Amino acid sequence: MKDFNNKERFFKMAEVYDKLVQYLIPKYNFLQEEVLNLLTFDMKMQINIVDLGAGSGIFLEKMLKRYPNVKCYWIDYSDDFLKVAKKRLKKYSRRIKFIISPLEENWTKKVDEKIHVITSMSAIHHLETYEKKNYIKLVMNY
Ligand SMILES: C[S@@+](CC[C@H](N)C(=O)[O-])C[C@H]1O[C@@H](n2cnc3c(N)ncnc32)[C@H](O)[C@@H]1O
Predict the structure, then answer these.
(1) Distance 54 CA to ligand 1 centre (A)
(2) How buried is residue 93: exposed, middle or buried, by Cβ count under 10 Å (0-12/13-18/19+)?
(3) Ligand 1 neighbour 57 (Cβ under 6 A)
(4) What is the CA 61 to chain-centroid distance, rounded?
(5) Mind listing the pLDDT tens digit for each residue in 102-120?
(6) Which of 51, 62, 65, 122 has an alpha carbon within 20 to 30 A of 71's alpha carbon?
(7) Which residue has a Cα nearest atom 20 of ligand 1?
(8) What domains lie within the chain, and their CATH numbers?
(9) Across residues 75-84, what is the average pLDDT?
């Protein structure tokens, strides 16, 4: 039997994450819809958003669908989740940039536009305390 560490085991979930998450996180879709409801943009403006630990891109898909002028940055360190997200968000390829990076390292250097909104769901708890401190510094200084 292959001995995956926890991180690798998690990455292997990428393909089935969409189904699994509905059981793992109560009211998953409801919570995401509520976040979208809080974002009252002027629809004529181009709004740029970063989703940290964006995973398979479920939230970004809702965002891109609801706001036609929004441009998104998918940020995550998992190649497995990247594959799933790219497939899901193919039709929005002109409005999304994929950045592979740990959240606690300098992903900010790879974002080349002004960012209006930063979102993150079910990702930060994966970080160790020292990583969380770096992450907070990056977000707060952005
Ligand atoms: C439970 S999934 C959540 C995905 C998405 N935000 C959602 O709510 O459906 C956690 C995601 O965070 C990513 N992640 C965890 N720790 C990370 C880190 N230190 N740097 C970058 N991504 C990380 C994982 O690769 C995974 O895609």
Answers:
(1) 6
(2) exposed
(3) no
(4) 10
(5) 999 999 999 999 999 999 9
(6) 122
(7) 102
(8) 6-140 (3.40.50.150)
(9) 96
